[in-house]
Amino acid sequence: MESARPIEPQAAQALQQPQTGEGRRRAASLLARATRLELEKAWALLPKQPAVKPVRGPETGLVMVRGRIGGGGTPFNLGEATVTRATIMLDSGTAGHAHALGTDREKARLAAIFDALSQEADSHAFVERELLGPVAARIATEDKVKAEEAAATRVDFFTMVRGDN
Amino acid sequence: MTGKNAVLAGGFTEPVFGSQSVFRQLMDGMARPGTIQTIETDVGQPEPLGAAAGAVALTVCDHDTPVWLSAALAKSAAGEWIGFHAGAPMTREKAEARFAFIEAGAALASLGLFSPGTQEYPDRSTTLIIEVSGFGEGQAMSLSGPGILEARKVSIAGLPEIFPRLWADNHALFPRGVDAILTAGRQLMCLPRTTRITTSA
Amino acid sequence: MYVAVKGGEAAINNAHRLLADRRRGDRSLPSITIEQVVEQLGLSVDRVMAEASLYDRSLAALAVRQSRGDLIEAIFLLRAYRTTLPRFGSSVPIDTANMTIERRVSATYKDMPGGQLLGPTFDYTHRLLDPSLLTDEEVDVAARRPEGEDAMMRISDILAHEGLIEPDSAPDDGEPAGDLTREPMEFPMNRDLRLQALARGDEGFLLALGYSTQRGYGRNHPFVGEIRIGEVEVELDVPELGFAVSLGTIRITECQMVNQFKGSSKAPPQFTRGYGLVFGQSERKAMSMSLVDRALRAGELGEDVTAPAQDEEFVISHADNVQATGFVEHLKLPHYVDFQAELGLVRKMRADIEKARNESMDNKEAAE
Questions:
Q1: Does a cis peptide bond (omega within 30 degrees of 0) precede residue C171?
Q2: DSSP code string of A1-68
Q3: Which of C52, C121, C212, C351 could disulfide-link C78, Cβ–Cβ 3.0 to 4.6 Å?
Q4: Are A68 and C98 in contact (CB under 8 A)?
């Protein structure tokens, strides 16, 4: 499973601490934003697809999205969003959880599997290299494009200077 | 199995059908107080939660129903288990609880701290799920009220001795008051607030 | 009185078939896909999500297609669907200060950190029908320019430095926010519940009420402090993980209305604020919401309650278009028996009047 490709510095760092809160938080966020296609591709690339036991779900439900009064005040309920979640367990006993907006159950199931795999020393580097890294890169590119498209609509005011000076 | 995995274990194999069938039994049990229902589904609940109590928890609890647990249950994996499978939050305030689970043999000093609902919304009350040691043995009682033709004789082992008196106080609050589900292993018996208990002295 | 009536089963089945046929329309044209609705009728989708109070683009698009583009019907469909789903929890409050911004304008400050970003707006279009859209002409990709350095500071924060604007309420995260989908509505209600009701309220109704405040019915001197549209992350606390995870991002529109306020016995002269927050891209709705939110604070700020937009019970009870359409449209359902009773009553009243008149005439004649 360790291929000849060099591990990126970020991945290497993550590899040292596969189970820390921050690392899992980052992994969970990226898995939530991974597309089904990205997850399926990574699944197909796995050198050895693990046996997986469903624990809960995949199931679709709602999360009440809260805002804050005035933007920064007391919370209020804005409205709900569909969320699909899954929990699975690998043969090794490692549990994986996934939560993502939308109703795609297969995506949630695969994301939960990769959440579990990213916690295991054997597969952590693979998940980072084949899935989390590329997803993070895609999101960064998309965000940059959107930000630049918005920036192109920024108004440059030309102020006429009048008077003696 | 590690503690963490005990929390993840179990649950209904078919959540929709499982909870529907347990709900049906609860409804029948509430409609005919004192009858015994047997839960067949296995939900893999952690000790000391009983099989019926576990199935009831997964059927009736959800994100909107705070759950209170008696001392031994609160120390066990039961809270996290209910949280994971049913999504219900735990509370330490009896008055906030929509459901309260009480392990076998736990002392029951009063029902007064649980929510009896309000005059406008008597449904906003706590339902108690009390584990007893068995039905058909122990203290003999006679039940009467809606859903019972004249009277129904039951005997319950392991119910706190004080219970009939607490229940009379509860009955007096009508339309407010708590409802109870007595569980013993796989079996359960419902006591809605409308049911009167007479003990044969 | 209710009388059991049977019948119409075949008629109803055929009406459903006819509906499906008309919805499909001319079979020689390709049928519209959900993806096309999401991508090309995105603002309809946004309105359905906002007023159904359920964020899901694909399901909202399905509802739009199923309802033949009748948006209130689509909202109804999506509302009905949401009742079938369990709730997993409440999100961490979204942080609108930390949005990926696509549009951000202010009418109060020209030069502000981050600048004015027009985004994909209709504002400067000529409102001339565009014949190029009659055909499938190639559309240029959006222009790009390197991002600015400045953070997009909130306008309310700029004014807050001077102490001239009321601050946000101290964030009290202890009390759970009221939820009108769980508890029956009671008046008077707190601002959190009002904002929830307004966020799912009918855009047209809120627009009309907002407009009425501008025309003098509860005037509150508004300026758009800031409108921002963009994507914001939604996070959920997951007990089994022990931390909040991101579920992905949603698109929202936020409006901070800044209102001149001459002061009252309860508050010094300062700027007050109305707040609007809506799913999707809809600044008309967010602006209307913030006008009405401010109007509904009249009591809290010691102003006289004189206009419809300031009347909490009136506004909140009538803002929901699913409720409104249900009650208005139920009038077309059979009321045969009610009407027979009314008919009988009117006939009897007529007969009584006739009789009384005849009697008085008789009496008059007798008197003569």
A1: no
A2: ---SSPPPHHHHHHHH-TT-HHHHHHHHHHHHHS-HHHHHHHHHH-SSPPPEEEEEEEEEEEEEEEEE
A3: C52
A4: no
Q: Please, which chains are in contact with C (at least 3 CB pairs closer than 8 A)? A: A, B
Task: Give me the pLDDT at residue C76, please.
Answer: 98
Q: Which of C101, C241, C250 sits opposite A65 (nearest CB)?
A: C250
pLDDT at C3: 60
User: B124 touching C, CB under 8 A?
Assistant: no
Residues 6+ apart with CB under 8 A from B166: B108, B110, B111
Pairing of strands A75-90, A52-68: antiparallel
Range of the domain at B136: 3-199
Q: Which residues of chain A have pLDDT under 70?
A: 1-20, 159-165
CA A83 to chain centre: 14
Pairing of strands C222-238, B187-191: unpaired
List pLDDT tens digits, range B115-149.
Answer: 999 999 999 999 999 999 999 999 999 999 999 99
- Beta strand A75-90 with C54-55 is parallel
Contact A143/B at CB under 8 A: no
Residues 6+ apart with CB under 8 A from A48: A1
Are the Cβ atoms of B15 and A55 closer than 8 angstroms?
A: no
Do C243 and A24 make contact, defined as CB atoms within 8 angstroms?
Answer: yes
Residue C141, helix vs strand vs coil: coil
Integer Cα distance of C311 and C337 in angstroms: 37
Instruction: Find the residue in B nearest to A64 (Cα).
Output: B63
Provide the mean pLDDT of chain B: 92
Q: DSSP alpha helices (H): ranges in chain C?
A: 9-24, 34-40, 42-52, 57-66, 71-82, 155-160, 191-199, 203-214, 283-295, 312-318, 321-329, 336-367
Look over chain C and give the mean of its residue pLDDT values, rounded to a whole number: 91
Q: Which long-range contacts (CB under 8 A, 24 or more apart) does C68-73 make?
A: C68/C22, C68/C23, C69/C44, C71/C44, C71/C47, C72/C202, C72/C321, C72/C322, C72/C325
Complex confidence, ipTM: 0.91
- Contacts for C146-149 with beta carbons within 8 Å, 24 or more apart? C146/A148, C146/A151, C147/A144, C147/A147, C147/A148, C147/A151, C148/A151, C148/A154, C148/C114, C148/C115
- Predicted pLDDT of residue A163: 65
Question: Domain of B167: which CATH number?
Answer: 3.40.50.11310
**Both structure tokens of A48:** 């050895």
Inter-chain residue contact A55 with B2, CB threshold 8 Å = no
Q: What is the pLDDT of residue C166?
A: 84
| DSSP, res B116 | B
User: 3-state SS of chain A: helix, strand, coil percent to 5?
Assistant: 50, 25, 25
Cα A14 to Cα A118: distance, rounded to the nearest angstrom: 10
Three-state SS sequence of B148-186: CCCCEEEEEECCCCCHHHHHHHHHHCCCCCCEEEEEECC
* Boundaries of every domain in chain C: 15-24+31-82, 91-121+150-168+179-326
Contact B44, B11 (CB under 8 A): yes
The amino acid present at B128, given as its one-letter code, is L
- The CA R_g of chain C, rounded to the nearest whole Å, is 27
Q: Give the C-alpha separation, C353 to C361, whole Å.
A: 12
Are C213 and C220 in contact by the 8 Å Cβ rule? The answer is: yes
**Entry pTM:** 0.88
On the CB side of C28, how many CA atoms lie within 13 Å of its CA? Answer: 0
Q: Which strands sit side by side in the sheet containing B99-102, from one edge to the other?
A: B36-38, B187-191, B179-184, B127-131, B99-102, B67-69
Report helix, strand or coil for C308: helix
